[in-house]
Amino acid sequence: MGFPQKESSIMTAPCPILSRGVELPTGREHFGVLRESADALHHLDELRQRLDDDGYLYLPGFWSRESVREVRLSVLRQLAALGCLDPAKPFEEGWSNADVPPPAQARTSPLDQCDPRMMSLLYGSRLLNLFAALLGGPVLHYDFTWFRTHARGLGTKSHCDIVFMGRGTFRVYTAWTPLGDIDRELGGLILLEGSHKKGDRLSPYLKQDVDTHCTNHPAARERGRLNPDGAIADDPESVRRRLGGRWLMADSYRMGDVLIFGMGLVHASLDNRSERIRISTDTRYQLARDAVDERWTGIPPIGHGPGAARGMIC
Description:
This protein is of the alpha+beta class. The chain has one domain (33-203, 231-288): Jelly Rolls (Sandwich). It has helices at residues 44-54, 65-81, 116-123, 125-135, 199-202, 236-243, and strands at 18-19, 22-23, 31-33, 56-59, 139-141, 146-150, 172-178, 188-192, 212-214, 247-249, 258-262, 267-270, 278-287, 310-312.
């Protein structure tokens, strides 16, 4: 439809791009910028085509900055109460107290993931209506909210989401929401271009379930899990060389952005090389009529762990 795309400054910026401690090459054949699709929000056929072609939709400014800022401030107040913020630094910038690391995920942290502002943002009509239009029917969201507070350190390993939530339909979609501006030093999500169409090269990885364990393993059940962290590999550059394509990201993510992608798209995150805390959420959506992974519905959801275990002879 002739939607123009802006040029990226990623390849020309002096700051290196690191993931899992590996410096990623930023030549044009290795690294690129995400296609922005906010300009196509009122062109449903175009959005669907992009989701099919690219495996993702990057929607800058999907929400108002102020609505996301309210959620961010609520989270920061809770982090401050836990002693995780440096009181000598600007509050809204989220500078970390090196002596008190933030909880990594809401399910095991004191942070209140039922904050009504957060729930209204992530599960309100604006995003649900978008998914209903994209998928062609009423949708539901998982009851589990993946909430991230990532201090200085290594990013997430390369993986596909299907290995964590593959017991229902394959047509589940992730919405990654940065709760604050995220530059390359702070990190952020990277997607592997075209990897959602590389299922032949990713088999049998895509058939894995992180809660499957070997019943004939001589050690404890946890040690017998086949792939407990769900990773394809620790080195993101080795994954790119194996599958082809480029790692993609935004020049910078901003409050109000949302990044949507499917279960078979390879992604990872950059290392946080700053002294600030990176705050974001992952939430999941699907057609209500499709089968649902039982680990992620109900109050509270089962999630990963003993209640979700499945045994097999290895």
